[in-house]
Amino acid sequence: MNDTPLFGAWLASRKLVAAAGLFCALSGVLIFWLYGLPGEAIAYLLCLCCIGTSFWAVLSFVRFWRKHKILRKMEEAIFVTAEDLPETTTLIEEDYQHLIQRLVRENRQRQAAADSMLEDLTSYYTLWVHQIKTPIAAMDLLLQAGPDRATEMEIELQKIAQYVDMVLQYLRLDSTDKDLVLQRCQLDAVVRQTVRKYAKLFILKKIQLVFQETKWEVLSDEKWLCFLLEQLLSNALKYTPEGGKISIFLEGETNLVIADTGIGIAPEDLPRVFEKGFTGNNGRMDKKATGIGLYLCRRVTNLLGHTISIASEPGVGTQVLLGLGRPQFDIE
CA dist 173 to 98, 126, 134, 294, 301, Å? Predict the structure, then answer.
């Protein structure tokens, strides 16, 4: 309507009504003439039709102009609400307004979701930057100490790789395509793959690993299951002191347990360990903790249809129990 004259636009919107009015007027004149009525009567009829049409035209044009003005003003405004729409005069206009109001509500919901996601990403990246600075600084110090610290440098480099992988998985979890492929995989092979990744850290911290073979074939996504086990094993290594022990074994028929002899988790912190950003008492002591690892573990188990729970006692250790039975959804 920006390039169309206002009067022309109004006339185009009322052409059917105008045509109907003209047809009625001409029909009335024809009927008067066929019945041989005096010319004054025909003129009187035409005069009444003209006055009525003019009155209707002026009123209709004014209302059309006011609506146009309101809508143009809303278009130019930075913030527009559905409540500012002009009053409806027809059922079709009312239907359009209901449609617009619904679109506005859906747009607000989408905008709120986008803002929430952006806020989450900003918060996560802020934590991630602080987290990844620690191994980078440690590597810098190890380089200055000399080439005999190669093993420790490899461990710090591994931490950086883990943090990078964590942020990639974090982004994939919020994407529409999570690249989920459920298939039968050997649990022992997945566990060994994860343990090999942290072998040097086990050696450096002199932590004993007790792994009881499960000989179990699970239905899961091997890539996501690897990521899940890496997060849990990384946590166990982080909070288990030198000379401690980490055990991996099968409990019952479907539960994989990762148990450590670490510092444990305070009872008041246990209900919240899977909350995003929650670090608890251990996290406050460990300045590098971000409260993202276990949150991602819960997200991944939900994605895979598995379950996860934690039991812990301060000063004794922590047990993470993964329910790896048949995923809780149908496979198509």
Answer: 35, 18, 25, 14, 11
